[in-house]
Every structure is written in C-alpha cells, then in structure tokens.
Design brief:
glycosyltransferase activity; alpha/beta; ten-stranded mixed sheet; 10 strands
C-alpha cells in the first residue's frame, strides 16, 4: 500500500533500521516508524544476516508499505548494517532507529521542524526514555534545558561527557551531507560504542545542534543486548573508540588538551566500571586499572573539574573494587 500523503515540498527523510535477532520486537519498531506524522519517509530495513524470522518479516513490511525497502546482507554487526543503509539512502536527512526500540508518532516531524526553525542548525536531538523489561521507565534527559549547541560547545561537552552530547545516533536527525561525498562519515566496523566515533566527526563539521528534552525516543533495555552482554571481545571498545575520537580531533587541529585528556580517561573509566559490574577476571581488571591510572594525572590538573569528580576518578584508578561497590549501591 502507499505510505500516505505528504506535501510535495517536504524533503525525503531516510530512516535506517539495522535488524538482527529481534523477531519479537520488530513489528512494534517498524509500526512506530510507518505511523509517523511526517509521511515523506524512506524506511530502510537492513537484515544483518539475522538467523530468525526477521528476514521474512522485513519482506512482509516491504510488501505492506511502498516507503519500505529491505537490504539483506551477511552478518557484520551494527556498524556494518548501518553503513549498508547509508550506502543506499537517498534522503535529505538521515535518522537511525534500533530495531528493538520505538519512536513517538511525531518524532521525525518534530525534529525536522527544530532544524528548520533554528538558523545554522543541521542536527536535532530529542530526549530519551529508557524502557525496562519490568515495565518501569526513566526519562533520562528530563532535567536538561533546551539548547542550541555550536561546534565548539558540542565538542567540549562530548569530550567531557556533559549535557548528553556523548550519547547515541538514534535520538537525532542529521543533515544527509555528513554521510555523502568524499568525506562521507561511516561507522567503524568491528567495534561497539561506534556512535561516539560518528558523533565526534559530525560535531566537528556541523553548523549547530538543537537539543530538546522532549521524550520522543523509547530505548528498550533488555538482557543480552550489545550494551548489557557479559565480558567479551568488545569489552574494551569504549577505550578504543575514545582514542580514535581523540586522534581524529587532534588531526583536525582541535586544541583543547584538557578535554582530550578527559575523554581518554573516561574511556578507560567506563571500561573498568563495566568490567567490575560483570565480575571480570583479575587480570582484565588489573590491565584496565593500570591503563586508567596512566590517563589520570592530566585530568587531576584540570581546573575545570570539581574536587569531588577528581576524587572519584582517583578512587577508581587506585581502589576500583571498593569504589565500585560504594558507587553501585548509591545508584540503586
């Protein structure tokens, strides 16, 4: 059937959905995109070699709505699937939706309006609601104010992990130019935490970003997803990606050494915190603690950081198990 009526002047927006082993969630995800109030959509379902019924379900959706196309490929991971979608996308804007999540009916229309209403803005970002298996929800951006970010303050907040700038690609709408031409941005294949890699490049080349905490993206937290899996070969990827982001920005002449040092530290801090939570073996913990300790000295000299933040970093680098026990209790 047709995808619905839309204004002839409305730009085409491509929505890329990587699909892998989400048979029970796919219908809700795709329905939430199909039913968007913004109708001029190109919906690209990328079957990443899924071993369940997802390939068949994708084809069924393609037959039901002429705005949907399915790309079938051998399994290569999330970055590979998103890249396959980018390679065929024709839209003027690009959005990403993970196939176990859903979006509010007006998400695309609202973020497109935000870009139109703010001069120089070519990225929009909405608020996120975490949806847990037990049914409870958490609007994680609720306390943040609406704000227009320039390149400079977006990069600084990204490197310091402030103001949700170090988040994900799926709660954003991007001008498609970031993913076209000789400098086309692509996701790093074979690594998790790939969104940071892309965002460092988008923020460095964008005109501006408009953020509103309006909760339009619904992010499902489920056991055994990429972000909740146990210790594996990707357990150190956050540190690897942090280093790649810093190397890229340095190559582009970015000069805030303190912010770069903090980003490198935060990569190892996050890895160590995750490993402690997953009760990794002593050798992995020791390796990570030593790597974190090497990144700490310049951070302790950073006058922009509070004493309390520096104390927490130092405790993680020196007595990680004790610090993790205390901090995990305080967040329950």
């Amino acid at each position: 059937m047709a995808g619905g009526r839309t204004s002839a002047s409305a730009p085409l927006i491509s929505v890329i959905v990587p699909v892998y082993k989400v048979e029970q969630y796919l219908a809700d995800c795709v329905a939430s995109i199909v039913n968007q109030t913004y109708r001029n959509l190109e919906i690209i379902l990328v079957d990443d070699g899924s071993p369940d019924r997802c390939p068949e379900l994708c084809e069924q959706w393609t037959e039901r709505d002429d705005r949907i196309r399915t790309v079938h490929k051998a399994n290569g991971g999330l970055s590979s699937a998103r890249n396959a979608g980018l390679d065929v996308a024709k839209g003027d804007y690009i959005a990403f939706v993970d196939s176990d999540d859903t979006i509010e009916p007006d998400m695309i229309e609202t973020m497109h309006r935000w870009i139109r209403e703010h001069d120089g803005v070519d990225v929009a970002m909405c608020g996120t609601v975490k949806v847990f298996d037990d049914g409870h929800e958490d609007h994680i951006d609720a306390a943040l104010p609406n704000k227009v970010f320039t390149r400079a303050n977006a990069l600084r907040s990204f490197l310091y992990h402030y103001e949700r700038m170090a988040s994900a690609v799926w709660n954003k709408l991007f001008d498609a130019r970031f993913f076209r031409g000789t400098e086309a941005i692509r996701f790093p294949e074979g690594l998790n935490s790939e969104d940071y890699f892309v965002l460092s490049r988008v923020y460095n080349t964008m005109g501006g970003l408009y953020f509103s905490a309006k909760p339009l993206y619904r992010y499902r937290i489920r056991e055994n997803s990429i972000t909740t899996a146990s210790v594996n070969e990707h357990s150190f990827d956050k540190a690897r990606i942090a280093e790649l982001c810093c190397e890229y920005l340095e190559s582009q002449g970015y000069g805030d050494a303190a912010a770069l040092a903090y980003c490198r530290m935060q990569g190892w801090y996050d890895v160590l915190y995750d490993l402690l939570g997953k009760r990794a073996d002593a050798a992995a913990i020791r390796r990570c603690r030593k790597a974190l300790a090497r990144t700490v000295p310049p951070v302790l000299r950073d006058r922009s950081l509070s004493f309390g933040r520096k104390a927490r970093i130092l405790l993680m680098a020196t007595t990680p198990r004790a610090y993790h026990r205390i901090s995990s209790r305080s967040t329950r």
